[in-house]
């Protein structure tokens, strides 16, 4: 039986090996990213971090990592994060943990973004994975109507708000043949703050399956 949690730890450890002293490191959100935060704390490097969620900031602080407020940061050396699904072209769906907007901002500020995942997250098509969309509560009704035209069905997360104070609607059943067009269409809806499509942000991925870690690098063959 595959031990997915063990695979997550292996992928996290491989990614953390890229971190050096004096780096400013972005910390992702979710169960896999939590393994990276733990691995970073164990290495005891002279680094500072920024977090993509209050939960990750709290975990990092508890484990002894120095966390800087991101609102004063313009550039990050490296960000390590998880993914809900990732394909061979390093396009991913993220946001099950609800932090996709902050994750995307930190990724944009980073010189390099690494995704870590267990083998179950590696897919040939992204469209089978629900796509989270963050929406201003003020725009709930209007945005929901527009989203209903893009997905087979939409589900608002009950009793849930992001760290930004917004709601999340998960879109199920979407056409992944033209993800860039979908990303543009989503951001054209007034009230949509962001979404979980990461189409060009990811530079590399460490994916572990049955104890074996594979590295995918944008523009290179895996090794």
Question: Could you give the topology of this structure?
Answer:
Layout: H1 4-16, E1 24-27, H2 31-43, E2 48-51, H3 54-62, E3 78-81, E4 85-86, E5 92-93, H4 100-109, E6 113-118, E7 131-135, H5 140-147, E8 153-156, E9 167-172, H6 179-187, E10 192-195, E11 197-198, E12 204-209, E13 212-217
Parallel strand pairs: 1-2, 1-3, 3-6, 6-12
Antiparallel strand pairs: 4-5, 5-11, 7-9, 7-10, 8-9, 12-13
GO cellular component, one term: cytosol
Catalytic activity: aldehydo-D-ribose 5-phosphate = D-ribulose 5-phosphate
GO molecular function, one term: ribose-5-phosphate isomerase activity
Descriptive report:
The protein is globular. The chain is built from 6 helices and 13 strands. α1 packs across α2 (31-43). A 6-stranded mixed β-sheet has the order 2-1-3-6-12-13, with helices on both faces. A 4-stranded antiparallel β-sheet has the order 8-9-7-10, with helices on one face. It folds into 2 domains: 4-123 and 199-217, Rossmann fold; 131-195, ACT domain (Alpha-Beta Plaits, 2-Layer Sandwich), CATH 3.30.70.260. The longest helix is centred in the first third of the chain and has 13 residues, at 4-16. Helices cover 28% and strands 25% of the residues. With 223 residues, the chain is an alpha/beta fold.
Can you tag this structure with a few keywords?
alpha/beta, Rossmann fold, Alpha-Beta Plaits, 6 helices, 13 strands, globular
Brief sketch in words of this structure:
The protein is built from six helices and 13 strands. It has 223 residues and is an alpha/beta fold. This is Ribose 5-phosphate isomerase A.
């Amino acid at each position: 039986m595959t031990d997915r949690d063990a695979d997550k730890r292996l992928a996290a450890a491989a990614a953390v090996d890229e971190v050096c002293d004096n780096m400013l490191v972005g910390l992702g959100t979710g169960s896999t990213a939590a393994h990276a935060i733990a691995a970073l704390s164990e290495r005891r490097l002279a680094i500072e971090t920024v977090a993509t969620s209050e939960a990750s900031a709290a975990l990092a602080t508890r484990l002894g990592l120095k966390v800087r407020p991101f609102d004063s940061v313009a550039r990050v050396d490296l960000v390590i994060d998880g993914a809900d699904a990732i394909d061979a072209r390093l396009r991913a769906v993220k946001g099950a943990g609800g932090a996709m907007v902050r994750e995307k901002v930190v990724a944009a500020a980073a010189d390099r973004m690494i995704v870590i995942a267990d083998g179950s997250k590696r897919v040939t098509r992204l469209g089978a994975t629900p796509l989270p969309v963050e929406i201003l509560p003020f725009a709930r009704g209007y945005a929901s109507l527009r989203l209903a035209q893009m997905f087979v069905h939409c589900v608002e997360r009950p009793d849930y708000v992001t760290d930004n104070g917004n709601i999340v609607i998960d879109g199920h059943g979407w056409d992944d043949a033209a993800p860039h067009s979908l990303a543009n269409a989503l951001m054209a809806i007034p009230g949509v703050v962001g979404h979980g499509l990461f189409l060009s942000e990811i530079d590399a991925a460490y994916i572990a399956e049955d104890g074996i870690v594979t590295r995918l690098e944008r523009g290179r063959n895996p090794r």
